[in-house]
């Protein structure tokens, strides 16, 4: 998939944000797979979890991704662990529809 965006996404700065290959990879993954935790995004895209979190912050600033923390149990642990769930906004969905 080649990144070719509508003029409105160039004017509002979205194109500059999405020109970073790892960010595009994250958005493409979320478009194809739906909401996911940062760790799953990292595993599936082969991007370090800290970098995924950083890129998600940038995408969230551009209103392309929304996130929330959820408490989950991991491997039968007695304590819950906070994990960050990420999903695309309607704006990101619209942008991906214009991507060629």
Count of helical stretches: 6
**Terminal residue distance:** 6 Å
Main structural class: alpha+beta
CATH topology: Arc Repressor Mutant, subunit A
Q: What's the helix and strand layout?
A:
Layout: H1 7-11, H2 14-18, H3 21-33, E1 36-37, H4 38-45, H5 49-61, E2 65-73, E3 80-88, H6 90-98
Antiparallel strand pairs: 1-3, 2-3
What does this structure look like?
By secondary structure, the protein is an alpha+beta fold. The protein has one domain: Arc Repressor Mutant, subunit A. Helix 4 packs across helix 5. The radius of gyration is 14 Å and the shape is elongated. The model has no long low-confidence stretch (mean pLDDT 88).
Which key terms come to mind for this protein?
100 residues, alpha+beta, 20% strand, 3-stranded antiparallel β-sheet, 3 strands, 6 helices, elongated, Arc Repressor Mutant, subunit A
Summed up:
This protein has 100 residues and is of the alpha+beta class. 53% of the residues lie in helices and 20% in strands. The chain has one domain (7-98): Arc Repressor Mutant, subunit A (Orthogonal Bundle).
């Amino acid at each position: 998939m080649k990144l070719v965006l509508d003029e409105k996404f160039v004017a509002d700065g979205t194109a500059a944000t999405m020109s970073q290959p790892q960010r595009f990879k994250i958005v493409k993954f979320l478009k194809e797979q739906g909401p996911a935790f940062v760790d799953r995004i990292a595993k599936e895209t082969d991007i370090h979890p800290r970098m995924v979190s950083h890129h998600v912050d940038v995408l969230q600033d551009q209103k392309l991704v929304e996130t929330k923390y959820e408490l989950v149990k991991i491997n039968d642990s007695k304590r819950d662990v906070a994990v960050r769930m990420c999903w695309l906004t309607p704006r990101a969905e619209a942008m991906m529809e214009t991507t060629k």
